[in-house]
From TrEMBL:
Family per similarity comment: Belongs to the TonB-dependent receptor family.
Protein name: TonB-dependent receptor
Keywords: Cell outer membrane, Ion transport, Iron, Iron transport, Membrane, Receptor, Signal, TonB box, Transmembrane, Transmembrane beta strand, Transport
Cell compartment(s), UniProt: Cell outer membrane
SUPFAM superfamilies: Porins (SSF56935)
Membrane topology type: Multi-pass membrane protein
Pfam families xrefs: Plug, TonB_dep_Rec_b-barrel
Signal peptide limits: 1-28
Coiled coil: none
Ranges for domain TonB-dependent receptor-like beta-barrel: 291-741
Amino acid sequence: MSNRFSYRPRPVPAVLLGLTVCAGTVRAADTTALTPPASSAPKTEYITVHRISDSAPGHQPGGGLIRPENSVRSISTVSRDYMDKQPPMATAYQLASMLPGANVATSDPFGFSPNTNLTVRGLNNDAIGYVLEGTPLNDVAYYSGYPSQFADSENYSQVALAQGAADLDSPVLNAAGGLMSLSFLDPSQKAGGFASVSYGSFDTNREFIRLETGNIGNSGIRGFVSYSHSASDNWRGPGRDKRQHVDFKFLKEWGQGNRASLIGSFNTTITSYYPQVTMESWKADGIHGANNLAGHYDASNADNAVNYWRLWRDPERTFYAGAPVHLHLTHKLSLDVTPYAQFAYGNVPGGSTLTETGLYNGTQPLSDTLTLPNAQDGTAVVRANYTQRSYRSGFNSTLHYKTGWNDFVLGYWYDYGDDNEQQPFTTVSATGASGDIWAENSSSLIHLANGQKLLGGSFHTISQTNALYVGDHISLLHDRLTIEAGFKAVMMSRAGTNNVPGPQYRVASNSMEPLPRLGVRWRIDEQNQIFFNATTNFRAPDQTALYNTYDPTSGALATTGSADVRNEYSISEELGYRRTGQWIIGSLTLFNYNFTNRQISTLASQNGSIIQTTMNAGGQTSRGVDVEIGLRPWHHFSPYVSGEYLHATIDNNIASGGDLLPTKGRIAVRSPTLQAAAGISYDDGHIFGVATLHYTGHQYATFMNDERMSDRTTGDISVGYRFGDVSRLHKPTLRLNFINITNERSLSGVASPTLNAKDTNGIYGSTISGSAPSYYVGGGFAALFTASTGF
């Protein structure tokens, strides 16, 4: 809604009546006459001024894809104006996909599938920090973000992507690729709500309702609670995804800027797996054939049976909660404190086979003879589970002391994580049924004669992070010059146990990294500014890097863990120019990154389950330029364009098989040279629409650059009509979304990069065998109809 306010000034000449102030301009408009009390005194005339701000729907630059910024670093923001025109189940990744540097790989049109990825300037999603109003959302073990779990899009007020660096006080460890900051809408001061229903392609349905309490008595507290249910058939292959989600926020404001809130999200899903494909299988079968899971269980053929879709369903439960508090202590002193908690449980299973004899528990041979249903020649189809149960809690506190032109910052962040991962197995019936896909019910799992569960792996890790940070925000020359200097010391410890027999039991790692930073912003005039920043970041490898894993059919070492792991360290710089004009808002940013021990996320098959792991890619240098331009609405039209040029190269040869691969100087994986996006929005208050187009250049999938995926262009269209208020219904709206309008059949991203796809001669002359990388397949065409209304 527009920000509207009325006031009663001293009497004004009648010639001024009928004017509306809008973003610094004066336009003719209707007036609202306020009739003064009857008296014998001369009549006094009053005016009402309507200020239509940049935050008002239909009046935002670039259709809600850009806004004026004043930071010392690059930031791009998506606001409600754009989100209100997108499919309601769109994830934070999909909402940010038009921003410069953002490259989103999806596996389905609507964002249900967890098989998705975001890279920013070629840096993977596990190199990005995710926070919801100061509450961290990253996975405690793998750093990844799972956007379908975060929140419902109707509850976001904005999605901001800082491509180059996280804020000094952000509670994240791994943000070399930037920070995605999510913000909820503030609860309304009046009781009411919002509801929507959607139906579309692949029998997709979704229902959403948000209830607003309004001000609760005289407590000054107001809040909202929302619930959504959604389901969709797989667009390729068999399967159906189901999701239920709850968001809430309660807020109290008082005094001079004091503010306390309680926020949270609960999510439960059961999603079907979309197999990643190799280049060979993609060229052979495309979206058909062997690139999909089997719709029917073939008990007579184990190779086919392990691909039965029901064995690959992925159930997940997550809960995020935080309580951000801002206290104005004195005229100069303020305090920000955010305690938070996170719980997650999930199972990432897959179809596999297991022998009835000759099994191993870690490296220990088992004398047990199992009795497995429908075994043939001593081998049976089973479901290989991979469960992760994690708890996380902590707090982040920041003290601000403002005096003169200085705003000093002193902060402390503490984070505690408890992560338990196991790989039990479940029997499969003659019809392909397997008990309890959550793998929580012990009776459904395969046990040994001594009553213990048969486990392919079992890890338990406790991690603790302590971070101290200090900084100063200096404002000089009437805020024309801003200088931000900061220093953060991060201490991270991990202690764990490998709970299967073998040479490894206790593991531990400790890291301490100093992270200085500096940023400067110079405001040339009211419309033009330049900025520069230099930032350092680090991340430790995933927890899986600590542990040995073993093949339960042979006891052989599958992967080797080590406590002597090297942390990734990076130094990044940005130099940028911004313009905030009467019609044009835009920015141009040059960036440079230097990495040592670059951590690359990849997927691995562990005893039939697909898990995430990392590889050390040595040094890397990334340089490029980002640009984005948006126009303020002109005759209700708001265009937007963004683009990126990226040149990311590997700095050294990588060790493999006792030799070195000649990778120095080659292009880094997941780093398209060119990306571009364009969109145009129309909104006259009733009729609205937006058309977007996104181009991503080719990406290498191997460090040897001997295999790559082709470039990709996709387009989406949204159209709708917003009615006026009807009785208690506020602005009922009808909307149609058309996704991937050309039905582009293409690979959307690199799921699992490898060192080399083809056999390659190493530096020292040995032959290093190649292995095929795998890819995400982008979703096909889909349409969705949504009816919504406030009340």
